[in-house]
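User: Predict structure, ligand NDP.
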Amino acid sequence: MSARILSGKLIADAIKAEVAADVADLREVHGFAPSLTVVRVGEDPASSVYVGSKVRTAEELGIVSEHIHLDADVTDEELIATVESLNERSDVDGILVQLPLPKHIDEREVLERIDPEKDVDGFHPINAGRLTQGYPALAPCTPAGVIEILNRSDIPIAGRHAVVVGRSNIVGKPMAMLFLKENATVTICHSRTKDLAAITRQADILVAAIGRPAFITGEHIGEGSTVIDVGINNFTDSSRANSMFPVDDVDKRLATIEKRGFTLVGDVNPKDAMEKAANFTPVPGGVGLLTVAMLMKNTVEAAKIRRGL
Ligand code: NDP
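Assistant: Predicted complex:
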């Protein structure tokens, strides 16, 4: 069997087109454009790429965007003052503080200072609490994107067994809550779970959000299941390429490692997933593309809610 590839690009493009239409409608009918402000601290190269892509995508969709870049040695007080000034600005609908923050900053304190109504990343405890209680909330973009992939690929969730590996506040926990909201039966696994493979093999839908390259292998994957790979990791070991990638992908991956020094892999061994699963999200080209699209959707949602629309 060879799994159906669930293309993140097609789904992200569809969501972005819907958001652009929504923005055009808000401009025309209500006379305003939603706006997103991204705050970046320091010079983390990955953060710089992510922020660039968020700001660019916002502009493409007609969302007004602003990028505030603070020095790496900014104090907690200065960063919180920036967040609070954005809370007060009526022209700002969405605020995103790009993570990770430098070690000396109290990340939790900063995220808790964002007005929950402008918290387009969905990380504020008020939004996490609302999600847990099953009330409308701005949901974290990556797990919300996973639900979109499943719904738009006609993969049923209600009544199915969803197993989530990972319990972070950013991916694992909100993923589990969103699955509950969709009436799945949910199991959450983590680093202290015993006999992980015995549990993950029972999944109709398996989500891997672990942060370890190709950690999930054939023994973890049930025949005919849907495997959603959230992980994003650099993979550099050419000698393992044959056991990692499907035959038709090996040469391309080796060429990428040769050229860039690494290729991107998720938390799932793609060769094994292609052999055992019925549906599989690739890395790159899967869940990652949904995260930015869902951020745009949340920004428009926040703008509408704040204006009572
Ligand atoms: P965290 O490091 O915050 O969480 C990792 C989770 O995996 C923890 O709950 C941890 O368990 C669990 N874990 C670690 N080792 C094992 C193990 N051996 N067996 C079972 N569970 C284990 O990571 P994130 O949730 O932030 O991110 C996860 C992955 O998703 C990363 O690769 C990240 O890059 C990627 N990511 C991708 C995004 C996208 O847009 N596609 C967005 C966000 C993240 P414990 O709690 O017990 O330590």
